[in-house]
Design brief:
It contains no helices and 15 strands. By secondary structure, it is mainly β. Strands 2-1-4-9-6-7 form a 6-stranded antiparallel β-sheet, with no helix packed on it. A 4-stranded antiparallel β-sheet has the order 3-10-5-8, with no helix packed on it. The radius of gyration is 23 Å and the shape is elongated.
Length: 191
């Protein structure tokens, strides 16, 4: 679904505290969940699903109206995995009750979010949310060139927020050459 999650719920055999393999059989129950924001405590997620020893897979397509850096916050009791557009980007598949965060750059448009979760015993909870951290590019100022020779130059500049460093250059306005990306976040740049 778009802007919602298809939730697929399975009962699992007891694993005596070991992390279970994710089920490959048909789910015991399905429903549409508007969000992943559950604290079941010692209860069951729904009728027909165990209070312990269960797994859930949520999947949905979400419209990210603005491209930029996003922070995903994940609370899990017990194990959880996060996939973005079919790629596993986060995995803490173990018994625990912990909050994690994951940051990634996303383009504007629809992205598929899939979350796998399991509960072995004790309390049960699964919460996933995301927020845009920054969609505004940094302001560049103080550009200068030094050490100019027939084949090299050093370009320096500052930015109003920490950012990566890279220079496009060439003999025409179409440039054609690019320096290696320095992914260290700084405000004083030199390439």
């Amino acid at each position: 679904p778009q802007s919602a999650f298809l939730g697929e719920y399975w009962n699992l055999p007891s694993t005596s505290g070991a992390s279970p393999a994710f089920p490959t059989t048909a789910p015991n129950a399905t429903r549409t969940d508007a969000a992943i924001n559950f604290n079941w405590g010692s209860g069951s997620p729904m009728a027909g699903i165990n209070t312990n020893d269960f797994a859930v897979r949520w999947e949905g397509s979400w419209n990210f109206a603005t491209g930029g850096m996003y922070k995903f916050t994940l609370f899990t009791d017990d194990g959880m995995r996060l996939y973005l557009d079919g790629v596993l980007v986060f995995s803490q598949w173990k018994d625990q009750a912990t909050t994690y965060s994951y940051q990634t750059q996303l383009t504007m448009g629809f992205h598929t979010i899939k979350v796998e979760h399991y509960e072995n015993g004790g309390g049960a909870a699964a919460q996933v949310s995301w927020q845009l951290l920054d969609a505004t590019p940094p302001t560049i100022s103080g550009q200068s060139a030094s050490g100019i020779t027939s084949s090299t130059a050093t370009i320096t500049w500052t930015t109003n927020e920490a950012s990566t460093s890279q220079v496009n250059y060439g003999l025409t306005t179409t440039y054609g050459q690019t320096t290696a990306l320095n992914s260290t976040l700084v405000t004083s740049h030199s390439v």
